[in-house]
Write a structure and sequence with these properties.
With about 140 residues, the protein is an alpha/beta fold. It is built from 4 helices and 5 strands; from the N terminus they run βββαβαβαα. The longest helix has 22 residues. It starts with a strand and ends with a helix.
């Protein structure tokens, strides 16, 4: 079994998957859609990846405001969580993703990805950062 991390955006979903030992998160792909409200193909692709990687649970980025309130994007993410749980039957954990995109941009700058190319990778890297944070917390709880 593995854990899937998702960075849900208005037109993309970044996808990452853990290794079988739940130690590392690896970026898989970015699912793109033309319209924010057209989720059928996005959900179908997520279900394909769940089967392919034998995923048993999902971690979904929760975009809270910096003052810890839940805005419009956060509400949409909570709705997406309910849809994922209903469609997949898997537990979906919300993970505070504040600054994950900033961190993803920083990582890409450090490895020399050109500014104009960063948009191509940012969602997948953000999903990896979200999932890795969850895995790190899970691992530290298991060690105690």
């Amino acid at each position: 079994m593995r854990i899937m991390g998702l960075d849900y955006g208005s037109k993309t979903v970044g996808v990452a998957v853990s290794d079988p030992l739940f130690i590392t998160a690896n970026g898989v792909e970015i699912i793109r859609r033309k319209d924010e409200n057209k989720l059928r193909q996005t959900l179908a692709r997520i279900e394909e990846l769940i089967r392919e990687y034998e995923v048993g649970e999902i971690v979904l980025g929760f975009p809270k405001n910096m003052n810890n309130t839940v805005g419009e994007r956060g509400e949409l993410s909570l709705e997406f969580k309910e849809t994922l749980e209903r469609r997949t039957g898997l537990p979906v954990h919300m993970w505070d993703e504040r600054l994950s995109t900033v961190e993803a941009d920083k990582v890409m700058m450090e490895v020399g990805v050109r500014r104009e190319n960063r948009k191509e990778y940012v969602d997948k890297i953000a999903a990896t950062i979200i999932l890795q944070g969850y895995l790190n917390l899970r691992g530290s709880k298991a060690a105690n």
